[in-house]
Amino acid sequence: MSVFRPFLSRVKHLIQCSMTVSENNNIRTFRGVKYDILDPKFEGLSKQKIKRLLKDEQWNEHKDEKRALFRQKEKARKQERKRQIREGLLEASPTKKKLAATSELTNINLVIDCSFNHLMTEREIVSFVKQLGISYGKNKTAPKSTKLSLVSLDDGFKDVLNEKWPSWKNWGEKHVSTTEQSYLDKFEKNDLIYLSADSDNVIQELEEGKAYIIGGIVDKNRHKNLCQDKATKQGIKTAKLPIEDYLNMSTRKVLTVNQVCEILLKWLEVRDWEKAFLSALPGRKLKDVEPVC
Ligand SMILES: C[S@@+](CC[C@H](N)C(=O)[O-])C[C@H]1O[C@@H](n2cnc3c(N)ncnc32)[C@H](O)[C@@H]1O
Fold this sequence. Notes:
alpha/beta, 6-stranded parallel sheet, two-stranded antiparallel sheet, binds S-adenosylmethionine, MT_TRM10-typ_sf, transferase, methyltransferase, tRNA (guanine(9)-N1)-methyltransferase
């Protein structure tokens, strides 16, 4: 018996090791957090969908802390700015009220198509609502503003806005119009141009009297060609922004609703696409960008 004991304990050890290995084979790490791919909640999901689910879970778990941290940083940044202005180190920028009062309204329509809520997750809808708020604010205070309209805005989405961005009810009619109708009911088809990164046409300039539609969706480009296909089916012209003519960008050229809005507003102000891209695109998108010579 004593002859077999070391042998048996070795076998037992090997079995235990193999169990740990096979268990570990199921364990993955996502952003520093371990998860088991055999967890039933991942059943039938693609690798990408699992990542999205985990990302959403991690966000929901830490969102209050993250928001608190962001607010704290913002408060500190604003206090520092006020101090610098007080000490004459920085010039105070004009207030939003003053900017809005001096904003000149052009005859360019900017239309946000709000018909895609059913294609977004809750988090994406929240993101879209924020983008709408930013777009509204930027348009209102831009030196040259557009006739902004939110179309296909149904009751369901109004409820979302009431919950996530209650101050939208104070948005002045002077600065934005909202309707349940589609852009097809509001504008002449010939005047419509659906903006899409998937279009083969490149926009050269914004024309007076035209209506430029932005797809109101946050989808991390899951629904490629969505807006291009929608417009084509409806017989509407499409166009993409002339990013490639001005910048060598290594990152994706699909931009967010507010980025597109800001680029168009900047172009109206300076009539220069390169300046418009450089001023409206965030640092992380411009990290590896070189101007096209
Ligand atoms: C996040 S993108 C939506 C991407 C979506 N998969 C689609 O089919 O357009 C939001 C909207 O911004 C506009 N957009 C984004 N990048 C653009 C680009 N490079 N040129 C023109 N429009 C762009 C489009 O109107 C687009 O629908």
